[in-house]
């Protein structure tokens, strides 16, 4: 499911209480994000776009992570560090409140006045709280402090797991976060003895939740596989077939041969951030209109224009992805590497010309 309640740029503008650098970084990330709030972005790009040094950008990102507004995942390409994947998180407070209600339904009074949250690096404090909770039968102050600790640090501690779960299930990150936090509470109860014995209870807790989320995903995959086998759910087609009208294309759908498009653009001199964001948007257009109209729609697209892509560059980008209208240029699936590189150079040249004029 895709969030459509509020555009990501509008959502970013609505956030309050952020420092200037965090606010600038959030708004730039929102301008690059796909409909699910995901973007692959270079730190250099953020520094240039926000007119700040890299150290300040990192501080801004750290503030956003502490507020659970973003989750950053490191990536590697061909064994080397690559630009990070950023996931915007809509309404983390809603996920926390939903988890609070679920925990309280189990008979635990979640009260911040019982001693406050244990620090996310305080292993001895977490151990003591677990011992107290177990001895009291998971009621009272120990259980309450553990719940407060989960609600305070869980969105950051388990945020990456929630992003993966959302990506796998096709649901919103906020819903996935509530599910993962609830699972974390159940795992704390189930794995309490192991956590108490461990040298680092926080690490054991994180590992237990990671395994539990993986098991849930495998079970979900088996269920979906069984349904598909019986013919209830049709097998998916190419995400860039065009004219489907209901297909979704985002960062995570741009895989396999379509990554060649991004690689070719980067080799031609297009920044990695723009290569990803622009290719996603061009693919979205291609998936929802006919090939005959795709080039014109790309040239008129406001999102591409906001990325600094001129109409000429947008048309060339669409040709790179789906081929030319007359078939003289092959699409990304069928083009050889030389043809792909040549067309990517056309896109890069058109983009550079626009940048020079600006």
Q: What profile does the largest beta sheet have?
A: 3 strands, antiparallel
- N-to-C order of helices and strands: HHEHHEEHHHHHHHHHHHHH
Beta strand % = 5-15%
Average pLDDT score: 86
- The helix count comes to 17
Q: End-to-end span in angstroms?
A: 38 Å
- List unreliable stretches of 5+ residues: 221-246
Q: From the alpha carbons, calculate the radius of gyration and give it in angstroms.
A: 23 Å
Q: Give the oligomeric state of the chains in this entry, treating copies of one chain as homo and distinct chains as hetero.
A: single chain
Helix fraction, binned, reads: 55-70%
Outline, from the CA principal axes?
Answer: elongated
Judged by helices, strands and strand pairing, the structural class is mainly alpha
Strand order of the largest sheet: 1-3-2
Number of domains: 3
Number of strands: 3
List keywords for this structure.
6% strand, 358 residues, Arc Repressor Mutant, subunit A, single chain, mainly alpha, 3 domains
Furnish the topology, listing elements before pairings.
Blueprint: H1 8-14, H2 20-32, E1 38-41, H3 43-50, H4 54-66, E2 70-77, E3 80-88, H5 92-104, H6 123-135, H7 141-157, H8 159-169, H9 173-190, H10 192-197, H11 201-229, H12 259-267, H13 272-288, H14 291-300, H15 302-306, H16 311-322, H17 337-357
Antiparallel strand pairs: 1-3, 2-3
């Amino acid at each position: 499911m895709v969030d459509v309640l509020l555009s990501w740029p509008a959502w970013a503008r609505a956030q309050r209480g952020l420092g200037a650098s965090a606010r600038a970084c959030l708004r730039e990330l929102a301008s690059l994000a796909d409909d699910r709030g995901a973007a692959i972005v270079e730190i250099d790009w953020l520094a240039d776009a926000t007119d700040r040094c890299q150290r300040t950008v990192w501080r801004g990102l750290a503030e956003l992570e502490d507020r659970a507004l973003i989750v950053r995942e490191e990536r590697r390409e061909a064994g080397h560090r690559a630009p990070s994947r950023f996931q915007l998180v809509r309404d983390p407070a809603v996920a926390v409140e939903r988890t609070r209600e679920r925990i309280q339904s189990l008979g635990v009074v979640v009260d911040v006045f019982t001693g406050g949250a244990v620090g996310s690096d305080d292993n001895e404090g977490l151990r003591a709280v677990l011992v107290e909770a177990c001895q009291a039968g998971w009621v009272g102050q120990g259980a309450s402090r553990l719940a407060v600790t989960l609600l305070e640090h869980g969105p950051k501690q388990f945020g990456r797991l929630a992003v993966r779960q959302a990506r796998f299930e096709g649901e919103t990150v906020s819903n996935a976060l509530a599910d993962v936090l609830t699972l974390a509470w159940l795992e704390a109860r189930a794995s309490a003895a192991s956590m108490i014995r461990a040298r680092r209870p926080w690490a054991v807790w994180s590992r237990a939740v990671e395994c539990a989320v993986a098991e849930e995903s495998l079970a979900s995959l088996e269920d979906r596989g069984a349904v598909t086998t019986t013919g209830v759910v049709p097998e998916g087609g190419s995400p860039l077939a065009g004219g489907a009208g209901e297909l979704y294309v985002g960062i995570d759908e741009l895989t396999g041969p379509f990554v060649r498009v991004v690689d070719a653009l980067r080799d031609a001199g297009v920044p990695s951030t723009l290569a990803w964001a622009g290719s996603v948007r061009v693919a979205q257009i291609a998936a929802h209109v006919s090939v005959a109209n795709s080039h014109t729609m790309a040239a008129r697209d406001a999102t591409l224009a906001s990325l600094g892509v001129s109409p000429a560059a947008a048309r060339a980008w669409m040709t790179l992805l789906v081929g030319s209208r007359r078939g003289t240029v092959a699409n990304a699936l069928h083009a050889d590497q030389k043809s792909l590189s040549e067309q990517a150079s056309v896109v890069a040249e058109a983009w550079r010309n626009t940048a020079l004029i600006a």
